[in-house]
Amino acid sequence: MTVTIGNTVIGGGRPTYVIAEIGLNHNGDVEIAKRLIDVAADAGANAVKFQKRTPAISTPEHMRDVPRETPWGTMTYFEYRTRIEFGRDEYIALADHALLRGVEWFASPWDVPSVAFLEELNVPAHKVASASLTDTELLEALRDTGKPVILSTGMSTSEQIDRAIGVLGTGNLVLLHATSTYPMEPEEANLRVIPTLRERYPGVPVGYSGHERGLQISLAAVALGATVVERHITLDRTMWGSDHAASLEPTGLNHLVRDIRIIESALGDGVKRVFDSEQAPMAKLRRVPA
């Protein structure tokens, strides 16, 4: 089974769909967000992804008044979430820029009003963050859009994933294996879950959302058959913010996309054959003919 986002088909042996997760790494600055879209486009990523919240709804009650040190001074966690949230005008500017650069854009809505907000902007797909996998009301709203849904499965049990898929259905769904630690240590990657998910949900494209340092684990996921790779991106890992340390800088994203395409080429079709390029070495080296 395949899923189509914009003009790109995911699954069914197609090239890996690369999502550059901008998330909150724009730090509330539209110009930084545009530069990150440029980074994704220059690297050859298929899409960029943001996060969309209604802070009054999506901010956990126990976190609302927790003080946070920010570049704009000390404020509550709720004030910080409100400070960095983009509105309609900002997203229209970012959508125009993404269109100009030839990449799709969509977001992870964290509450039902954010689904409606993104639908008004006609996004081609929606992403469910791992933290939202158990939010049935949100999943129902996403299902009702009829758009493709990409579901991250970090911090979730098999039973919780089953329940989420029971709400969303499998007809227009992409699953992403993930481990929700930032940054993730290699021993927690558990990449063999990728084929496990593929066997548990036949026909559903399965990919990988990574929060590790470096490229090796994401590239190994492609070798294991990941149809999607999502990685956070940043202009500079030393920037202020919680996700920058687990993000790829521009050169890292360039290398990731380059190496994914090399691996895809190297995987081949699984049919054992003798290549024309082997004929000369065969004539020179094989002592006993077949």
Describe this structure in words.
It is a single chain. The protein is of the alpha/beta class. 38% of the residues lie in helices and 19% in strands. It has helices at 30-43, 55-58, 77-83, 88-101, 112-120, 136-145, 158-168, 193-200, 216-223, 250-267, 279-285, and strands at residues 3-5, 8-10, 17-23, 47-52, 67-70, 73-76, 104-109, 126-128, 149-152, 173-178, 206-210, 228-232. It has an eight-stranded parallel beta sheet. Strands 1-2 form a two-stranded antiparallel sheet. A two-stranded antiparallel ribbon has the order 5-6. The protein is globular. The model has no long low-confidence stretch (mean pLDDT 96). Residues 36-272 form the PseI/NeuA/B-like domain. Pfam families: NeuB (PF03102).
Could you list some keywords that capture this structure?
alpha/beta; 19% strand; 8-stranded parallel sheet; 290 residues
Distance between the termini: 41 Å
- Major pleated sheet: 8 strands, parallel
Stretches where pLDDT is under 50 for at least 5 consecutive residues are none
H-E string? EEEHEHEEHHEHEHEHEHEHEHH
Cα radius of gyration in angstroms: 21 Å
Structural class: alpha/beta
State mean pLDDT (0 to 100 scale). 96
What is the chains' assembly state? Answer: single chain
Query: How many helical elements?
Result: 11
Beta-strand portion reads 15-25%
Question: Which descriptor suits the 3D outline?
Answer: globular
Task: Give the strand order, joined by hyphens, for the main sheet.
Answer: 7-4-3-12-11-10-9-8
- The count of strands amounts to 12
- Percent helix, as a range, is 25-40%
